[in-house]
Input
Amino acid sequence: MNNLLRVYAKEHPTLLLSICYFIVTIIGVIYSYFYYAEFGIEILKFADLSDYLLASILEPLSIVVFVFWVIFYLLSFKLELWARKKFNGYGRFVERTMKPKYSDPILFCLAIIVITVIFVKNLAIDNTLKIKAGNFDDYSALLPNDKDEQKLAFLGSSSRFSFFYDLDLNEAIVIPVESIAYMKKKLPIESVKAQTEKESASENDTVK
Output
C-alpha cells in the first residue's frame, strides 16, 4: 500500500492535487453549512458554484483540518507498518486475523471522515456561540431602508449575499451585496493606541 501511494503520486501528481483540493473544499462546505445553520440560514440556497469552489479559501480552517488529518494518517500508517516489522507476533496476528477487518486503509479513511465531520460541526457551533455571546468584530453597516447605521456581527458572505447577525434582536439578516451602501469596522482601543504611539514615535525620529 505504501509503495502504491508513492507510485500513484509520481504518475498522477495533478490528479492527486485535484483530489486534495476537492477534499478541502468539502470540509469548507461542511463547516459553512453547520456554521450558518446555527443562525437559521440555509447557506446552500444562497451559494453559487463559485462559492463552493472557493470554500477552502473562505474557510481557511478547512485547510488546517485537512493537513492535520493527512499528517495523522501518514504517521499512523507508518507506525503500523513499523510495528508489524518490529514485532513479529503482532505482524503475523494482523496478517492472519485482523488485516481484512481492521487494517484496511479504506475503513481507516471512513473513520477519519466521520471524526472530521463531527469535529468541524462542533467547531462551527462553538464559533457561533461566541458570536451570540457578543464576542465578534464590530461592524457598522448602512442597510436598505435605514437612515442610521446598525451595529451588526458580520457572519460572512457569498458572491451575491452578505450575512449579518443582530445581537439585540437575535435575528440573522441576509442582504444582497449590491444593496449595502457601506460597512465600517471599529478598531479595538488597543489597536488605536498602538497606532497612535507608532505614529508619534515616527514623528519624533523624523524631528531628531
